[in-house]
Amino acid sequence: MKLAGRMERLGTESAFEVLAKAKALEASGREIVHLEIGEPDFDTPAHVAAAAQQAIDKGHTHYVPAPGIPELRTAVTDFLERTGRLSASPDRVLVTPGAKPIMFFTIMALCEEGDEVLYPDPGFPMYASIASFAGATPVPVPLREENGFVIDPEELAALVTPRTKLLILNSPHNPCGSASTPEQLAAIAEIAIRNDLVVLSDEVYWALRYDGDHHSVLDLDGMAERTILLDGWSKTFAMTGWRLGFGVFPQPLVEPITRLVINSVSCTSAFSQHAAIAALEGPWDDVDTMLAAFRERREVIVSGLNAVPGVSCVRPGGAFYAFPNITELGQSAATLADRLLEEAGVACLPGTAFGGYGEGHLRFSYANSVENIQRALSAFEDLTS
C-alpha cells in the first residue's frame, strides 16, 4: 500500500516510543524509573471526576456544538480574566480533544507551501512536524543555555523573512523549563507587529511556575488580534487522559478553525466538557498541592544532577522538566539516554528528541516521587562514574 508523500513529512513524539520500550523492559521483569513521559503523576481532582459522572447520569452523552458547549466557553473566558491572563469574548474560544488539535488546526488553516514557521528548538516536536506536514518550512529558533533557554529577540529578528507566516512561542517551556520575561516578550511583540506575523502562544504549563508571575505575549498591546492562545486541562489539573484543550483565536480565525473541527472530530465529548467547567470553577487546592510537590522535586533533581561529575543543570522556572547539560560526559544525548534505560533502568529523553539544538542535553520529567527521582540520580551517577 503506497502512502501519500506528505506522510514522510510527519514526525512523532519520542516520549511515547521511549515509554513503550520502558514498558517492554518492565514486562520482562526489569525495574524502571519513568522520567520520560510529560504527565503529572497525580489523580484528577475528585470534584472534577464527580462532575463528569453526574454529566453522564444526566444524559450528556450526545453531540454538542463543534466549538464547545456555551457554558464551557464562558467558563474559559471567566477563568482567563479571573487569573489575569486575557480578556476575551466566549465566541473566540474553541474547545478540542486535547491541546494538540489547536496546534494542528492553526498551522493547517494558516500555512501552506512556501510559508515559513518559526518555532523554538529545543521545543515540542509537534511544532516542526505539523508545519512540515502542512507543506510549510519549519525554521528553528535556537534556545541557548547561555540565554537561559529563552528566545534571543535579535536572533529571532534575523530569521524573519518575507515568507515567515507564523511564530510559535512556548512558556513555561517544554523541554527546558524556561519562562519568558516581560522584556523579552516586548521585543518579540515588536518583531511580530513589524513583520505582520501571527503568533501561536503555547501556554499549557502556565500554572506550573515557581519563580513569580506568568508572562505572555498577550500582555502586550496589539498582540490579541494576531495571537492564538493555546491551553488545556492536561497539565494544570492532571487530566491528560481526558483529552481536553482550548484555543482563544482572533475573530477572523474562529469560523475557519471551527470548520476544521467539524471536518475532523465533530466535537469534544459532552460529559468531559462539564468536568472541564468543574475544574475551572472549583477549588484550587489540588493544583496548589501538585505545584508544591513539583517545587520540592525540582530542588531534588536539580541539586542531584549538579552533583554528578560532568553534568550541569539550570534550575527551571516552570513546567516539570530538568534539561541537564551532559556535554562533558563525552557521549551523544541519544547514546546516553539509551544506556540509561538499558543499563541503569532510567527512562528519559535525549535533548535531540526536541530538535538539533538539544544535543548535549537530556530531558528528565520530575513528575515522579522524590524517592524514585533519587533512585534515578543514583543510577545516573553510577553509570557515568
Description:
This is Pyridoxal phosphate-dependent aminotransferase. Belongs to the class-I pyridoxal-phosphate-dependent aminotransferase family. GO terms for molecular function: pyridoxal phosphate binding; transaminase activity. Its cofactor is pyridoxal 5'-phosphate. The strands form 3 sheets. This protein has a 7-stranded mixed β-sheet with strand order 2-8-7-6-5-3-4, sandwiched between helices. Strands 9-12-11 form a 3-stranded antiparallel β-sheet. Strands 1-10 form a two-stranded parallel sheet. It folds into 2 domains: about 140 residues, Aspartate Aminotransferase, domain 1 (Alpha-Beta Complex); about 240 residues, Aspartate Aminotransferase, domain 2 (3-Layer(aba) Sandwich). It contains 12 helices and 12 strands. It is α/β, with parallel strands linked by helices and about 375 residues long. α10 packs parallel to α12.
**What is the helix fraction of residues, given as a range?**
25-40%
Count of the domains: 2
CATH architecture of the largest domain: 3-Layer(aba) Sandwich
- The order of strands across the largest sheet is 2-8-7-6-5-3-4
Protein name: Pyridoxal phosphate-dependent aminotransferase
GO molecular function, one term: pyridoxal phosphate binding
Keywords: Aminotransferase, Pyridoxal phosphate, Transferase
Organism: Kribbella turkmenica
Write the topology of this structure.
Blueprint lengths: L13 H14 L5 E2 L11 H12 L12 H13 L10 E4 L3 H11 L5 E6 L4 H8 L3 E6 L10 H7 L4 E7 L11 H13 L3 E5 L24 E6 L12 E4 L2 H14 L5 H12 L3 H22 L14 E2 L10 H12 L1 E2 L1 E2 L11 E4 L4 H15 L1
Parallel strand pairs: 1-10, 3-4, 3-5, 5-6, 6-7
Antiparallel strand pairs: 2-8, 7-8, 9-12, 11-12
Helix pairs in contact: 2-9, 3-9, 4-5, 4-8, 10-12, 11-12
